[in-house]
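Q: Could you fold this chain for me?
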Amino acid sequence: MTHTSLPAAFVRGGTSKGVIVRREDLPADPARRDALLLALMGSPDPYGKQMDGLGGASSSTSKVALVSASSRDDCDVDYLVAQVDVERPIVDYSANCGNLSSAIGPYALRAGLVAPREGITEVRIWQENTARRIIA
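A: Sure. Below is the predicted structure, expressed as structure tokens.
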């Protein structure tokens, strides 16, 4: 894969760590997108270390959150979890990560996807993997 730059945030959410990227910064083609996410995390790594990427060599530290402004009227941001396998070239989109979900609201504020309000700012998140709305 050609080396490229990709704006990203490395975050901890609960007991998980992961990378948050804006969906519009990724290739639209799913195969190219997944190849980029695998390279970003350092997978596949037959030694299970992800030394050439940002992955932490375990399922709880090898996740990427794809975030974008929401296309829904009842949400501010859309959020999709990509679980990147450490040893195999697999990116799984079948489940949410509740821990990483806790980082999406603060990220949305810092990234300018949601404007902060006086007092408490509510961030309405559409969790695409589970088709559920999260209020942060």
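A (continued): The longest strand covers residues 77-84.
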